[in-house]
């Protein structure tokens, strides 16, 4: 019996303990490089990059294809090949076909990635890629003179082919329908004079268009104390409000329009009845502008806006330094409503407060805001006023226009915000369309958008730098930036984004200032006005063209 009990006790074992659960060790990212350069974000890479990602453990290859993705920002998947190194700790990814230029891509290694020990990746790894610009020329290379001809002729079409059919005035932009712009039409008038001189149209064609424009302005267009609104309906001549309180006179826009009209008056100097009548009609418009009335009660400053029902609600004084020097030059030159010098001294110049004198990027700036402001400050007034050798108590304007332009160019080369694409080939900050809106770009308001008009319209001041930019815009970006009316308004290589818009106030300076660089045509015409010579001298200006 004892034997039996002992035998039974041997067969009855203690229960085994629960075996431990073994969790595969997780693993982590160790290193990342693209074409041998480390970092999680890469701009300007080639279209066949090699992306190398290293992990702390060898990878389970079966998990790679389903857990590494390669996509464009629009969600388009990119096919790629993978190879391995470092005992399978490093995966090397290469697209099977060339990527698109100027396109953003993301390569993502997700947490579903496994190691050979079946461990999971602790956190996802993402690398951002932005491919480089296609450096191939988009158009055949031609001589510099032929290129300038082409740019002027194509830009001229905006004002000639796309001018409003009833009034002949310039549409505000290529999507504006019947809305025409006063200032842009002044630029368009100067473009017509240029077009005749260049042989794009005949003198008789230009005269006929000018008769249409001047007749509409004299007999149909709304005027307020002789001044025109910013926008008009090109069919009816009625004011189109620019804003709630800006539904009447705009003295700056009126000045830009008058700058063009006086230039045309000097050009159409024939003794025949048609050209004589045209000059008389222009003089009627010119003499009807009550510049002195915009002193708002004999103040020593001019005001920008006035409305029949809003009065002086905008209450914006015209003070320098900006694009509006032309207003004071014309106001002082008026045969009928001239302003005295103290309005210029106390209003525009603020008794010298518009002076700057600081140095930016090695260039001293005589006038204006820090780093100069947008470049249209040096274009609009100087489409007619020749700054060469021009001085007054506050500045040498040849120095001013060049200094401002060089600061703008050097800022873009320095590129303190690190925008992709800025360079000595690609520069120019001014007012333009931007993605989703409009802004006055400058070194102190830089959103990464370049406007071709900024550099090209500065051709008289910085010919070498401007020509370099022009060639880049045309040859390297022409497939995206060149259209029916010349260069589109603006672009960003950093986004990337390219406008499809044209604006009269940006197209006009391109053709006009290029002509001033080449021949001085518009400068010579405008500065030949006897009223301008007297008026600017009265303000204290001196120079070889007065």
UniProtKB/TrEMBL annotation:
Residues 44-132 form the SbsA Ig-like domain. Residues 316-530 form the Glycoamylase-like domain. Keywords: Signal. It comes from the Bacteria. The keyword ATP-binding does not apply. The keyword Zinc-finger does not apply. This is Beta-glucosidase. It comes from Mucilaginibacter hurinus.
